[in-house]
Write a structure and sequence with these properties.
The complex is a heterodimer. Chain A is of the alpha/beta class. Chain A is built from 8 helices and 6 strands; from the N terminus they run βαβββαβααβαααα. Chain A starts with a strand and ends in a 6-residue tail after the last helix. The chains are: A alpha/beta, B alpha/beta. The structure holds thiamine diphosphate (TPP).
Chain lengths: 195, 585
């Protein structure tokens, strides 16, 4: 059995660090793991999708429409764009934040409306990661809040996450990030981000 | 030994280090860049960024001739630049092993074209190894050094985006230390490729490749995994992983050495299955060679453009795809964009106003081609913009109120712009060349370059003085301007394009991402804003047009560069604090 998680966001939102944390947790749990990310041109404010797959033996680093088990969307439009990766019945975790892309900013195309409703119909679970990140002490820890929320739906022990995050983030931000992780996890376990 | 999560690039660096490499040299290019950056962090290795890939391979040739092992890294198009030394290095062969990592980008995530670097194998007569994941990237980089020295030939390790930028678990090993090279003994028959020597080395090269093919047949790295004999798949690289996932029952021949091919084993494999098909990305490289060997390859419609994926492979072989959720239509696209505070923005803003024909180049500034700046007319390859500006003038363009302007970044100028400029100076051309000097190679993630002098080992060395360089070419009109002074940007461009002589303008200000301390952000005074849209035309991600047409800023995104303040004729963009007091944002 292989579990596939897609992390979708906008360049600069910290999806790559989040994916790295998840992959290291899976590895620490003794599983095989592969992670696929995109660097370069696309990172300059463009859409950035990262895939993490773990299980006994993982072949492809890439996934496809209809195969992913979890989507962690860091942004609403990207959630809608990548929704189809998730199999029916898969878990959709969506940050309520919207970052308007350039065509919207300059008024060339309208900002899409009703996305939250459409995503809700697909069974999405919403979270305001920025708000929880500020509560944790830094808006930059929103990516770790989302990992906390994701962790509530995966089977890895909380200590594994704590160890990996502590080792992976800059040392002066460990406390903030651990707080962010716990807030995200708690929000999902206690149902605040559930439907 | 421990299991570590490494990207393909990190694994190549690790493999080279374990193989005792002394030097790493290359030029940045997605998806190859992090390889050398990682090698630099390991002990007892000296790494350098070259101005371009040709120089990188020539430095490597020297390291090899001096007896030490060397890793060279570049993206696929870089090999076009380095092809000249490659072909003759196949003749000379090596002293210390030369391994060249070439990272292809099927699907063009971050590239101007798709190329299949396996073709360099038969073209230049150099062996090519194709890892499928991080583990193999480490192992095959190590074996590539052995093959290089044993068969006296440079070796290409071909990666693709999904190998270079995927991470997987790797068993890391120890470094094998080689002895210091013996003092160099002249050997002109090997290293001086005069025609008489080259003829001998050409024969020798063919013999070396023959010996290598024999070795590949007996001890080579290719692998056969037999499953059902109904279908046999020949594949290589990351496509192997897609095949294993999509067609778990098929028999698989995994090509690792894609030049020279293990022909005998491939023929045997073909004979052992009822139907044989090839799964590969980019060019039909294996398919063509298998057919040339007389193997009957089934026609399966695997897409030849872009990347493959497990589902694409499954679909090509008639597999059923899972049901998917409904598409949410009409989502706005999200193209990449210039960062807030980017010093390139004002230049394209001015070029658009000047209605210039802009022959562009490759770097972050290529984003000046996208709306709303929309001020670039060509982008072909690194350095092309300067020669193309001259060519456009030769074609008679540049009159009719549309002046010709070449735009090039600092790293690109050092890479291959200097020769273009020399061409115009030498041939008496006119036109205006804009050098966007943001003090870094930004697009690929901030590497140093010869214009600003920071080396890969972290030393601050000499910087190239662009004004003096241009003056030495006899160019009389060279000016340096601060791109955040929009008045000066506009007026300098207007003056220089009005001139009937060659001129160069250097726009010098650091990349916005190099500036750690943000300035105070700006907000819009809603009462003063007339909804004229002037600031929107800058294409800054911190500025948006609201439903009433009035502008708004996002103070969490704004870095306070002040470019927008200068385009606003109504003083409606004010420091964020003040706007809040007067009831604005
Ligand atoms: C032959 C070749 N090598 C490498 C690359 C990858 N590449 C694209 S742009 C670029 C450098 C851009 O730097 P610069 O000119 O300073 O512009 P900036 O991104 O800083 O604006 C590189 C290395 C390429 N496209 N072609």
């Amino acid at each position: 059995m292989t579990t596939t998680v897609v992390l979708a966001g906008v360049g600069g939102q910290g999806t790559i660090l989040a994916a790295d944390v998840l992959a290291k947790v899976a590895a620490a749990a003794g599983l095989d793991v592969k992670l696929s990310e995109v660097h370069g041109m696309a990172q300059r404010g463009g859409s950035v999708d990262t895939t993490v797959r773990f299980g006994d033996v993982v072949h492809s680093p890439l996934t496809d429409l209809g195969y992913a088990d979890h989507l962690v969307a860091f942004e609403l439009i990207e959630a809608a764009r990548t929704l189809r990766y998730v199999r029916p019945g898969g878990r959709l975790l969506v940050n309520t934040r919207t970052i308007d892309p350039m065509p919207v900013l300059i008024g060339a195309v309208p900002s899409p409306e009703g996305l939250e409703g459409q995503l809700q119909n697909e069974g999405a679970v919403f979270l305001d990661a920025e708000e929880l990140a500020c509560e944790a002490g830094s808006p930059k820890s929103a990516n770790v809040v989302l990992m906390g929320a994701l962790s509530a739906g995966l089977e890895f022990a909380e200590e594994l996450w704590i160890d990996v995050i502590s080792a992976r983030v800059p040392s002066h931000t460990v406390e903030v990030n651990l707080r962010a992780f716990r807030l995200g996890r708690k929000a999902c376990i206690e149902g605040e981000c559930m439907l | 030994m421990s299991r570590t999560l490494l990207s393909g690039n990190e694994a190549v660096a690790r493999g080279a280090w374990e193989a005792g490499v002394s030097v790493g040299v290359g030029y940045p290019g997605t998806p190859s860049t992090e390889t050398l950056e990682n090698l630099t962090r390991m002990s007892d290795v000296h790494c350098e960024w070259a101005p371009n890939e040709k120089v990188a391979l020539e430095v490597a040739a020297g390291v090899s001739m001096g007896g030490a092992r060397v890793l060279v890294t570049m993206k696929h198009v870089g090999m076009n630049v380095a092809a000249d030394p490659l072909f003759t290095l196949a003749y000379t062969g090596v002293g210390g092993g030369i391994v060249i990592l070439i990272a292809d980008d099927p699907g063009m995530h971050s590239s101007q074209n798709e190329q299949d670097s396996r073709n360099w194998g038969p073209f230049a007569h150099v062996p090519v190894l194709e890892p499928a994941d991080s583990h193999e990237a480490l192992e095959f980089t190590k074996s590539a050094f052995e093959i290089s020295e044993r068969f006296d030939v440079p070796v290409i390790v071909r990666s693709t985006t999904r190998i270079s930028h995927s991470k997987g678990l790797v068993e890391v090993g120890e470094r094998v230390l080689s002895e210091a090279p013996a003092p160099f003994l002249s050997d002109p028959a090997k290293w001086v490729m005069l025609p008489s020597n080259a003829r001998c080395r050409c024969t020798s090269l063919n013999e070396r490749i023959d010996r290598l093919a024999k070795w590949n047949a007996t001890d080579g790295p290719d692998r056969v995994e037999m499953g059902s004999t109904e279908l046999g798949i020949v594949t290589s690289g990351v496509c192997y992983e897609y095949v294993r996932e999509a067609l778990p029952n098929a028999s698989v021949y995994k090509v690792v050495m894609s030049y020279p091919l293990n022909e005998r084993a491939l023929v045997e494999f073909a004979a052992s299955v009822d139907r044989l098909a090839v799964v590969e990305e980019a060019d039909p490289y294996l398919k063509t060679h298998l057919r040339a060997m007389g193997i009957d390859v089934a026609d399966v419609s695997v897409p030849i453009e872009g990347e493959l994926s497990p589902a694409k492979v499954a679909a090509a072989f008639g597999g059923t795809l899972p049901s998917t959720r409904a598409l949410i239509a009409d989502l706005p696209p999200r193209p990449p964009l210039m960062c807030p505070g980017c010093p390139h923005r004002s230049v394209f803003h001015a070029l658009r106003k000047a209605k210039a024909i802009v022959t562009g180049d490759i770097g972050c500034y290529t984003l000046g081609a996208l709306p709303p700046l929309s001020a670039m007319d060509s982008c072909v390859c690194m350095g092309a913009g300067i020669g193309m500006a001259h060519g456009m003038a030769l074609a008679g363009q540049g009159k009719a109120g549309r002046p010709i302007v070449a735009v090039i970044g600092d790293s690109t100028f050092a890479h291959s712009g200097i020769t273009g400029l020399a061409h115009i100076a030498y041939n008496g051309g006119a036109g205006t060349v804009l050098i966007l000097d943001n003090r870094i190679t930004a697009m690929t993630g901030h590497q140093g370059n010869p214009m600003m002098g920071l080396t890969l080992m972290g030393e601050q060395n000499r910087q190239i003085d662009i004004e003096a360089l241009c003056a030495s070419m006899g160019i009389d009109h060279v000016r340096t301007v601060d791109p955040h002074d929009l008045e000066a940007v506009g007026s300098t461009i207007a003056e220089e394009i009005g001139r009937d002589q060659l001129s160069v303008i250097v726009f010098c200000a650091p990349c916005a991402l190099l500036i750690r301390e943000k300035e105070q952000p700006y907000a819009v005074d809603e009462e003063a804003c007339t909804a004229c849209g002037a600031c929107i035309k800058l294409g800054c991600p911190a500025i948006s047009k609201t439903s009433t047409g009035i502008a708004a800023t996002d103070i969490t995104v704004c870095v306070g560069c002040g470019d927008c303040v200068q385009v606003c004729k109504f003083d409606a963009i004010v420091p964020a604090g003040e706007a809040c007091e007067i009831g604005g944002v």
